[in-house]
Amino acid sequence: MKLLLCLLGLVFIVEGFPYVAFPDKMKKWLRQVQQVPDNQLRVIGFFAMCLGLVITYIFR
Predict the structure, then answer these.
(1) CA pair distance 42, 48, nearest whole angstrom
(2) Could you tell me the end-to-end alpha-carbon distance of the chain, in angstroms, rounded to an integer?
(3) What are the phi and psi torsion angles at 22 (to 5°)?
(4) Where are the domains of the chain?
(5) What's the average model confidence in pLDDT over 4-23?
(6) How far is C-alpha 22 from the geometric centre of its chain's CA atoms?
(7) Element (H or E) spanning 44, and its range?
(8) How far apart are CA 52 and CA 54, in angstroms?
């Protein structure tokens, strides 16, 4: 459980950094993401999850 909470904390750090460092560019990027079709976002999200699973499996 300790490892899970540590990893969750790291995810929050990685996810929050762009908003702190580049808030104006993040707003622009989020507007552009709204233009992407839902199916394409699902495919991108699926591949990102698979990549995360592979990386976790390799380094665990």
Answers:
(1) 10
(2) 15
(3) -140, 65
(4) 23-60
(5) 94
(6) 16
(7) helix 38-59
(8) 5
